[in-house]
Amino acid sequence: MSEAGGGERALDSRAVRKLFPYLEEVTYLNTATTGLSWLGQGAAAARFYDEHKARGYSAHLQWRGELEKTRELLARLLRVPAEEISFASSATEALNGVAHSIRLQPGDEVVLCEDEFPSIVLSWTPSALQGAELVRVPIEREEVRTDALIARISDRTKVVSVSHVHWGTGTRVDLKRIAAATQKVGARLIVDGAHAAGAIDVDASVADLYTGSVFKWLLSAFGVAYVVTKSSFAAEMNPLFRGYANEPPSRKLQFSHPNYPALYALSATLEFLAGLGWGPIVEQVNSLSGFLHRELRREGWVVVTPEDARAGIVSVVHDDATRTVARLLEQDIEIEERAGLLRISPHFYNSEGDLRRFLEVLGRNPSVTR
Ligand SMILES: Cc1ncc(COP(=O)(O)O)c(C=O)c1O
Questions:
Q1: Which helix (H) or strand (E) is 317 found in, with range?
Q2: Cβ < 6 A, ligand 1 pocket
Q3: For residue 208, which of 99, 137, 202, 233 is within the disulfide window of CB 3.0 to 4.6 Å?
Q4: How do residues 26-43 score in pLDDT, each as one tens digit?
């Protein structure tokens, strides 16, 4: 379990749900798109303006203190040194920043899964590649995602970039094995943890750079993302964007102020979640996604998310996914369609009751007879 601290007692789900009143109105199974804010998060963001920025620069030590606290809380959650954590305005900005700051040359390869999240693929523009080849590995089946990626790593590979948990299919890759394969050929490993941190136990120290947005499984704001950069990797970078926060000879990617109100909301949320216990949170996500996986299969659905490589997302083959999402919404059940799949993403604030309601309205796969 995570080193993030907090009690290991089971979640008091009734007390938890009181802090997410929207769950009384809607069966919300869409955290992979956006997590629910808890009552108290708005007040935490307002503290920046009302208590600190109301005093202008005189309060700068207070907001810097909050920044340090956020880094400490993230460091414990992600198992990395706090000094390696910086902030960008989004994971997409961080991915573009790193892609444009690495030195590459013709003959080098950047290796990705073919169906990666758009920000991972698109950050490798021709100017970022500098003549290197972008290798997009086809993934035939979710069970072989990790193996297929590793199999394509060669002596020419300089960068491997991968989602820790895939945004569409929910597959959790084996980061340790991918890290070992990249290290063997001296390549760098860049990871997007958007669907991992907050849902599963994460050890970001295996990656050279690990970034993630915080508005999904960490329930927090848009406009801020954490970026963990190994110091040995940072030392190799030639940042494309420069500013007062990374004047030469600094190699840091962060070039200006972070989004302080968003950090106040994030640090309060990390404290709140650590107080509930990261262990029980991760266990609840695992138990709900496991239950969903079993019950969907029992009802004849093809679940593409591998049972032994899942996080919080469970994705299902459906020949009319868009219409089904709309039909469920009419019954106040929120899920998403991604790449033609039904994507269901419960978080710790959901209950088995929420999943039973979803399963009942979804019904049995009509193309399968008992
Ligand atoms: C895998 C993945 N990475 C990144 C993002 C976007 O994050 P950001 O808005 O911080 O760039 C998303 C979803 O919006 C995502 O699913």
A1: strand 314-317
A2: 90-92, 117, 119, 163, 167, 192, 194-195, 213, 225
A3: 233
A4: 999 999 999 999 999 999
